[in-house]
């Protein structure tokens, strides 16, 4: 089915480890973003992209890197995991002047 | 600075009645978009409705309408004829011209039978 695919769905990391959260969309959307959602809170923007080769920082970019080498893929890298990065991570994509299609989320726990 | 405010942490509504969820925003851009999303207890995020800053008419999508008051910088969501399945978190979001999209803190809606 068309949409946004995030992997993995669950992950436990040790403090200091690095990992990449994968995000892929097959709708040819120009715009992609990463958000984190902490318990009982709204979504905070980490990084976003308006097209292949173009990325920019959001509200909470520290500790995360992104790249956008293709229209379809937008991976999020955690450089050195910290307990404060325990959260649910959502990837989303959209075309201009339309709402996001969200992935199902990655639940990350850093111990 | 780009900012979204939802002042109602929780709301109750009787089934079949209408409810309004408040959202105010702040931006210096002339071109922007306003969105509402629903997050059921399952955790998925569902896009509901969009309003562009240059749209003169309020957006409607089925039982959802967006009450857009540009001068007041408000973009309230109106849900008509509430159903039990409408119980969820609702988030207001704003996209500025550069595509950066931020979300409000959300309002939890409880629909009573």
Overview of the structural elements:
The complex is a heterodimer of chains A (111) and B (113). In chain A, β9 (87-94) and β10 (101-102) form a beta hairpin. Chain A is globular, with a radius of gyration of 13 Å. Chain A starts with a strand and ends with a strand. The mean pLDDT of chain A is 95. Chain A is mainly β and 111 residues long. Chain A has no helices and 11 strands. By secondary structure, chain B is an all-beta fold. Helices cover 0% and strands 54% of the residues of chain B. In chain B, the strands form 3 sheets. In chain B, strands 2, 5, 6, 10, 11 and 12 form a 6-stranded mixed β-sheet that branches. Chain B has a 4-stranded antiparallel β-sheet with strand order 3-9-8-7, with no helix packed on it. Chain B is globular. The N and C termini of chain B lie far apart (41 Å). The model of chain B has no long low-confidence stretch (mean pLDDT 95). Chain A binds chain B through residues 31, 33, 35, 41-45, 48, 50, 56, 58-59, 88, 90, 92, 97-102, 104-105, and chain B through 33, 35, 37, 43-50, 52, 91, 93, 98-106.
Task: Label this structure with key terms.
heterodimer, A: 111 residues, mainly beta, 4-stranded antiparallel sheet, 11 strands, B: 113 residues
């Amino acid at each position: 089915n068309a949409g946004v695919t995030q992997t993995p769905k669950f992950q436990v990391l040790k403090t200091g480890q690095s990992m990449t959260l994968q995000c892929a969309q097959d709708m040819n959307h120009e715009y992609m973003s990463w958000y984190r959602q902490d318990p009982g809170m709204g979504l905070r923007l980490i990084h976003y992209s308006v097209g292949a080769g173009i990325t920019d920082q959001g509200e909470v970019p520290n500790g995360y890197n992104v790249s956008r080498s293709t229209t379809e893929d937008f991976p999020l890298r955690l450089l050195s995991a910290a307990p404060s990065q325990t959260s649910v991570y959502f990837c989303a994509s959209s075309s201009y002047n339309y709402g996001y299609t969200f992935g199902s989320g990655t639940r990350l726990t850093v111990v | 600075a780009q900012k979204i405010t939802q002042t109602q942490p929780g709301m109750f509504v009787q089934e079949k009645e209408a409810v309004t969820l408040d959202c105010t925003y702040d931006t210096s851009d002339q071109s922007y978009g306003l969105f509402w999303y629903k997050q059921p207890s399952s955790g998925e995020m569902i896009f509901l409705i969009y309003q562009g800053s240059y749209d003169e008419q309020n957006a409607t999508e089925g039982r959802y309408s967006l009450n857009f008051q540009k001068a007041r910088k408000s973009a309230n969501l109106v849900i008509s004829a509430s159903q039990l399945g409408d119980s969820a978190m609702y988030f207001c979001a704003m996209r500025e011209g550069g595509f950066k999209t931020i979300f409000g803190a959300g309002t939890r809606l409880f629909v009573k039978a």
